[in-house]
């Protein structure tokens, strides 16, 4: 395994600079949430190019680091990650299920953050992975992100390990609706409610005071009156066994693994790197900052 630094630079080095054929509209890179880093080491870039060239059935795992150049902060990066800039922490699954006021706070903040969060566009890295899929080089993509940017880029051979904020589920009857549809329900229920958003998090969360949250009305499931929750594996929840086993099968069919933009502190993704190592697959890690593969220790995951 080897680290590489400024990995958008690395992707540029793969010769995928020209994406004229894409219909996806792309905002210019927003570097506010990209951690400070050195330019890529040419030797490492060459090594990575060799790695990708030699791979015929690449298994790729991506994390929040791949979306920072789309203007979405990650969790753990020094200086610019959510944990470094704020004392906000993502909602815990048990708290969301147990507490109506926790849900009210979550949805009020999510409602305010949604217009901006849902407007982010894929960056070069997302588009390169989609291109590799079209070329038949990428066998399977598993992402830990819930921002839908791989979907917006057009990736299809993909598993969203932690779900996606663009879908909403009823915890009682399992009915699924689009998050954009829920936004309309929120607007109808809260015609005079207004709040300013302060900064957005990797899951679309923003900061609001308790005062601002108090009068926000949260709709129940229109079919059964059950609790609505984003189709996202919150921290403290587990990824379903079926999904994990499905991804392990895709990994077993692959001949190499590339990790991009993940420190792998969360076990739900790290386990695939462990499985790849057990199978003795070549593994490349492309990340700004240290990763668990280098530390070989660190806090255990909240998401399992
Ligand atoms: Zn329902």
Structural notes for this entry:
It is a single chain. With 304 residues, this protein is α/β, with parallel strands linked by helices. It has a domain at 7-15 and 28-88 and 122-179 and 229-295: Rossmann fold, CATH 3.40.50. It is 36% helix and 14% strand. The chain contains twelve helices and ten strands. It has helices spanning 7-13, 42-54, 82-85, 93-98, 100-117, 124-135, 149-153, 179-189, 210-213, 241-252, 267-278, 292-295; strands at 58-62, 138-143, 158-160, 163-170, 176-178, 198-200, 206-207, 228-232, 256-260, 283-286. Strands 3-2-1-9-10 form a five-stranded parallel β-sheet, with helices on both faces. A hairpin with a 5-residue loop joins strand 6 and strand 7 (206-207). Helix 10 (241-252) runs parallel beside helix 11. The radius of gyration is 19 Å and the shape is globular. The chain starts with 6 loop residues before the first helix and ends in a 9-residue tail after the last helix. The chain binds zinc ion. Residues 170, 172-173, 175, 221, 223-224, 226 line the site of zinc ion (ZN).
């Amino acid at each position: 395994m080897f680290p590489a630094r400024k990995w958008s630079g690395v992707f540029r080095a793969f010769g995928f600079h020209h994406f004229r054929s894409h219909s996806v509209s792309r905002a210019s890179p927003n570097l506010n949430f990209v951690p400070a880093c050195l330019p890529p080491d040419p030797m490492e870039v060459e090594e990575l190019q060799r790695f990708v060239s030699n791979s015929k059935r690449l298994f790729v795992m991506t994390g929040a680091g791949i979306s920072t150049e789309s203007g979405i902060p990650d969790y753990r990066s020094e200086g610019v990650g959510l944990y470094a800039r704020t004392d906000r922490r993502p909602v815990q699954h048990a708290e969301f299920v147990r507490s109506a006021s926790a849900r009210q706070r979550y949805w009020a903040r999510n409602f305010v953050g949604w217009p901006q969060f849902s407007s982010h566009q894929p960056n070069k890295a997302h588009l390169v992975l989609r291109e590799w899929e079209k070329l038949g080089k990428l066998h399977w993509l598993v992402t830990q992100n819930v921002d839908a940017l791989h979907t917006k880029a057009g990736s299809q051979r993909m598993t969203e390990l932690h779900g996606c904020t663009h879908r909403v589920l009823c915890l009682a009857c399992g009915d699924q609706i689009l998050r954009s549809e829920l936004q309309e329900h929120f607007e109808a229920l809260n015609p005079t409610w207004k709040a300013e958003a302060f900064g957005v998090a990797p899951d679309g969360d923003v900061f609001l005071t308790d005062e601002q949250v108090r009068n926000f009305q949260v709709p129940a499931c229109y079919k059964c009156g059950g609790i609505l929750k984003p189709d996202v594996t919150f921290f403290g929840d587990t990824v379903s066994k079926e999904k994990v086993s499905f991804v392990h099968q895709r990994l077993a069919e692959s001949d190499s693994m590339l990790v991009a933009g993940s420190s792998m502190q969360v076990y739900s993704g790290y386990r695939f790197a462990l499985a790849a190592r057990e199978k003795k697959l070549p593994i490349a890690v492309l990340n700004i900052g240290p990763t668990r593969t280098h530390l070989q220790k660190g806090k255990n995951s909240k998401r399992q």
